[in-house]
Design a protein that fits this description.
This protein is an alpha/beta fold and 472 residues long. Helix content is 50%, strand content 9%. The chain has 19 helices and nine strands. The protein starts with a helix and ends in a 13-residue tail after the last strand.
Length: 472
């Protein structure tokens, strides 16, 4: 295997070799190692830089998950300096716990806990009369390759881990979208992405800048794909079918996700690989575990528990979707969070405020059912965020009528919750999560949304003096 690999490298004189000349030989070596050491079903995907700038040179993919990356440089390249300082390598280390870096002769495996290496020898191996690799060096390299291939694609089962995995990829997607928007603007030819940006400015926010749209679109796409996976279940989500798994009742989200088939066009190559990354993450999810981690019943079962630590707070007194987005933002862009005032209201305060409103309706206004009165009460949260207050309102309504299994519950859901409870939100990602959260909440309680049903949560800027009317 290794002698064949070196023979292929030797076909090009050493002084004429570049980073690219040995790519075919390296891919053949990786495929031979997979055949020799397993596991079965692993495919080596080459990402030429001219096609996907910023992507790793190779991805090893097994089923829906990414097993690891391989990044190669020219013979003799300073790999130690590369691993310590190169922005691309730093980025890849955030994306995968299994990174192999090589100059064709030296192989360095980088994991979260250690860096190990093996070498076939000096560049002189590629010059002069051919001679076999020293057995001990061959054994070390083969052991390293076997270790690299022994990793398993991570099937994420915790919401926090998923939020962080999506955040790292959303950063890259945001940058790729922004660069592509600039290119489409300067080319004067336009494009679907630029068209979406202009429509967004006209319909939602007149002052939206290109970077702001790229930011909003990146977040929306990663959360939209997650929503699509939740709806798709065991089926794989692809560029072509993602929009089919987005409810028609959320037309804005469906329209944005409907953009994904365009990503196959050459003009979007700068970020197509990142979208593929997101698809690999969501298709490889341990979905039952994610459902459990984001279940509202975990919150209700322990309401009122006192928390002695941050971890207990997350377990005992949480809205799971709040923390899902909080963890995402903390990794994605803490500065954006601060600049736009994206901070959650702690659940006990939300609970207190909503209960106070409920009691005031009863005691001051004489409305016996409080928030549950479907004829006299309308609720509007004009800065809805991820829908935390709205979920608390729904809980108070269910509590007032005797629970989600009460005989009048279906009527209250359709004639009150879906008609009289409103939310306005300016940021696209929280808006998306609000729809996801509210739908998940009702589904858990046995009242899933039917075809064409939706919550009255809309994307709009409540402080903009002139707002075009459009249902989103």
């Amino acid at each position: 295997m290794l002698d064949t690999y070196l023979a292929a490298l030797r076909r090009t004189p050493l002084d004429q070799q570049t980073e690219m000349t040995g790519r075919a030989a390296l891919q053949s070596l990786l495929e031979a190692a997979i055949a020799a050491f397993g596991p079965a079903g692993v495919v080596v995907v080459h990402e030429p830089k001219r096609v996907a700038e910023g992507a790793p040179d190779y991805k090893l993919v097994q089923a829906a998950g990414i097993l690891g990356y391989v990044e190669n440089k020219s013979v003799g390249h300073d790999l130690d300096k590369l691993i310590r300082r190169d922005p691309q390598i730093i980025k890849y280390r955030k994306l995968t716990p299994n990174l192999l870096v090589t100059d064709y002769l030296r192989f360095v495996l980088v994991t979260p806990t250690e860096t190990v290496e093996a070498s076939l020898g000096s560049p002189s191996l590629l010059e002069g009369k051919p001679h076999p690799v020293r057995p001990e060096r061959a054994a070390e390299v083969e052991a390293l390759l076997k270790r690299f291939l022994s990793a398993s694609p991570v099937g994420i089962g915790r919401a926090r881990d998923l939020a962080e995995a999506l955040a790292v990829r959303a950063q890259l997607l945001r940058d790729g979208l922004a660069a592509t928007l600039v290119a489409q603007t300067e080319s004067k030819r336009g494009g679907r992405l630029l068209g979406l940006y202009e429509a967004f400015r006209a319909q939602v926010s007149h002052d939206l800048t290109t970077p702001e749209f790229a930011d909003a679109f990146a977040q929306t796409l990663v959360y939209g794909l997650f929503l699509a996976k939740l709806n798709a279940g065991d089926a794989s989500v692809t560029l072509e079918n993602a929009h089919l798994h987005i409810p028609a009742s959320v037309p804005l989200l469906r329209e944005l996700v409907d953009f994904l088939p365009e990503v196959d066009r050459a003009e979007y190559a700068a970020f197509k690989w990142v979208v593929s990354e997101v698809l690999s993450v969501i298709n490889g999810l341990a979905l039952p575990a994610i459902h459990e981690d984001l279940a509202f019943r975990n919150r209700r079962a322990t309401r009122g528990s006192s928390a002695r630590s941050e971890e207990e707070w997350r377990l005992f007194s949480r809205d799971p979707f709040i923390y899902f987005y909080e963890d995402f933002l903390a990794r994605y862009d803490a500065g954006t969070r601060k600049g736009r005032g994206v901070y959650y209201t702690p659940p006990p305060i939300v609970n207190f405020i909503v209960r106070a409103v409920h009691d005031t309706l009863k005691e001051v206004f004489g409305i016996a059912d409080g928030l549950a009165d479907r004829k006299r009460v309308t609720v509007l949260d004009f800065a809805a965020g991820t829908g935390t207050f709205l979920v608390e309102v729904l809980e108070r309504i269910f509590e007032e009528i005797g629970g989600p299994a009460a005989g009048k519950a279906p009527l209250i859901v359709r004639e009150h919750m879906l008609r009289n409870i409103f939310g306005f939100e300016y940021l696209v990602a929280p808006y998306t999560i609000a729809h996801l959260k509210l739908a998940s909440y009702l589904r858990e309680l046995g009242h899933p949304l039917g075809e064409g049903e939706r919550f009255q949560v809309y994307l709009t800027n409540t402080v903009e003096p002139i707002a075009p009317v459009r249902n989103l």
